[in-house]
Amino acid sequence: MRPLKLTLSAFGPYAGLETLDFTLLGDSGLYLITGDTGAGKSTIFDAITFALYGKDSGKDRRERSFRSMYAESDSQETFVELTFLHQGREYTVRRQPEYERFSKRSGKNTLKGAEATLLCPDGTIITKKTQVTEKIVELLGINRDQFKQIAMIAQGDFLELLQAESDRRREIFQKIFDTRIYARAQKLLGEEAARLMDQQKSLQGGIARYAAGVQCPDDSPLAEQAALARAGGLPTSQLAGLLEQLLTADEGEKTALTEQQAELTQAMNELAGQISLEQERQKSRQELAAAQGRKITLEAEQAAARQTQAAARARQGEMEQLQKEAAALEHQLPDYDRREEYRRQARTRAEDLARAQKGLAGLKAQREQLAALYTAAQAEAEPLQNAEADRVRAEQALKEWQARQERLTAAGKNWQTGARLLRQAQAAYQQAEAEAKQALEEYDRQSTLYRQEKAGLLARDLKEGAPCPVCGSLHHPNPAPPPAGAVSEEELEGLRAGWEAASARAQKAAEAASAAKGRAEQQAAALREEMANLPAEGPVPEALPEQLTAALARLAAETQAAAQALQEAGQRAQRQTELNAKLTQWAEKIETLRTRVENGERYCIQLAEQEKAGAAALAQLEETLSWPDGPAARAALAEKQNAAKAIQSAMERADQNAQRIAAALAGAEGVIHSLESQLAGAEPMDLESARARWAQLKSRQAELTAQSEEISARLIQNRAALEGIQNQSAQAAALADRLQMVKGLADTATGSVSGKEKVDFETYILRSYFDRILRQANHRFLEMSGGQYELCRREKSEDLRRASGLELEVLDHYNGTRRDIKTLSGGESFLASLSLALGLADVVQAAAGGVQIQAMFIDEGFGTLDEETLRLAMESLIRLSSGDRLVGIISHVAELKNRIEKQIVVTKTRSGGSRAEIVCG
Q: N or C: which end of the chain has fewer CB within 10 A?
């Protein structure tokens, strides 16, 4: 199935009528559904699902909520129409949901019912909602839930499926693959095991209940033994023998009673037949008397009918004369209609001639008016012949002044920037110079102090046992004290290095300030060069900033003047263009009017000639007609026809009445003859005596029936007891083996076998589906992850006490390790869930019989991918969309807008609704 065209009217966020022509997207490849959040991107798939199945793609909601709250008017209908291609044939389905809208007639909201139509390729139209849905399911081979799983990849749902625990994943697959039948099998096995155990407990009680129901007559020699059985004192092995003896005795007595009842029934039937025959004869005698009286009455009616028939036939000549006159008048009726048509044509020609003459006068006046306007426009256009050249020169002058203004502005900014940088460089130099001077002064002071206090400094470094650098002694009993504030030789060297570094920084700052000064002077020279040759107004200021301000003001004034001149020149050029266009247009119209005037004059002459010929034909026709008009002629015709019909109807009624009476008389005579034949030789019977004898026989039959029913009740009760005891005894023998077998099956099916992995029957089936999904998913996941990752089902459960079988982990081929699926990054999780979703779609499609769904939608998730991951995902989706499959990505990621040329762009309007447009390239 591939969508060709989708039309939405007041549906969801789409306020107006939106039509999406999917053929513009081609037969295969990727396209993007993009737009603002909440604009209605996913609604496109909802609309396709609603058109096909009468429900949207999400959770079921009431149809009334499909009506757009932004609908442009109350009269606008809410509907979805989808044209799709299936197996090379085109179908169109249209659905209207149930919704409320305001009625101007009643002044309140009224409910508009849901409707659905399906147009098939052979022209057949299906109109009922349920029948349309059934036909769609028959065509596509899948229901709505399967369509969603195959055609819509909702990223959030499949990320949940990827990261779910085994129990949650089991619930999801249960809904998708509808494995309730296997869970039902598990439950039935458990229930059967429990039932067998209960049956085992109740078998002995059942045998006792059967024994308590043994029936036996009080006068039977077996009555004492039967009472012992009912009390539960007779062994089970003797119960069957007792019951067989009781049954044999009752069956013999029942046979004798049956023979007596048969003889009695035969006697009753013979007597009942004689009574019934006499009743029928009495009825026939009454019917014979009635038929003889009816014959006398019909003979009198027949004589009167023959007289009426003769009188009616006497007027046949009068009827034939009226029919002849009516035929002649009817033949002349078209001449009356033709006369009225001639009169109407005469009136029409007169009106046409008057209108033509009036129109001709108007055309002549219009031609003269346009000629005057043409002359005036020529006079106005004469002085504007060079207006376009003037406009071009004014435009060039404006561009030159604007360019000078831009150059001066740039030069001024450069000069200002250079002056600022010069001030910063000079300040930095002054700071660096001051720091270098301060470092030199500190170095000179410490150097002087160091030379003055050399002994103290040497004494400060003496250590006991180490030779003195002056005398070589190892003992230092009285070293000189170190000077206050003196530094060591290393510290003095550090001060010298600091002074040299500060001097170097000051030198660099001086060089930078010098360079900045040179650049500033060059920028100032460039600024003065730009200000040269400007139009002077008054004395030129001495300072450069004031010169720049004045120059900019002069350039702004010149630019404004040039813009004003361009505007005026443009207005003159535009007026020249308008006048030239009008002159050309009016010249064409004047020529057209000239032709129309000539044609109008010829047409008026033609109409006048037609009017004269029509008047002559009308006068000739009126000479042949007798009646003033057609209605009068038709009235005379109707009068003659009605008179003839009245005579003919009277004749037909007289004939029919005579025939009816003759037939009734013949019928009465036949009945009399038949009844006389039946009653010939029959003697009357005494019915009262016969009925009394039949009542006596009936009473005896009731007595025998009561006795027989009593015996039958005992037979039924005792047979049931015998059969029940025998059956339950046999069941008791076979129950132990069956209970053992069923209990083992139940424990296996529910995964309750001790020490084994807890995998029930339904989970085993779900594992099979899961493995098929993973095989399909890994074809794509390996491609998208560059061969690194593969999804795997965990073979062994970590806890034998928990239900298991659907745990998921990822195999990393780069290091050969298996790890939890939740360790994947966000982008990797997206690729894994996308692969899982596509694998699920493949399995569901195959499970549905390999149905052909040539359109797929993928909803969001691409925003978490880096550039390389996005590239791999896109390459996989491009392969997925090859052949004859069209894949739509629902996303607002900017990178996808640059990668995918074919797009459906959904935008929100200022009025609150949304619009959708297909953009290709």
A: C
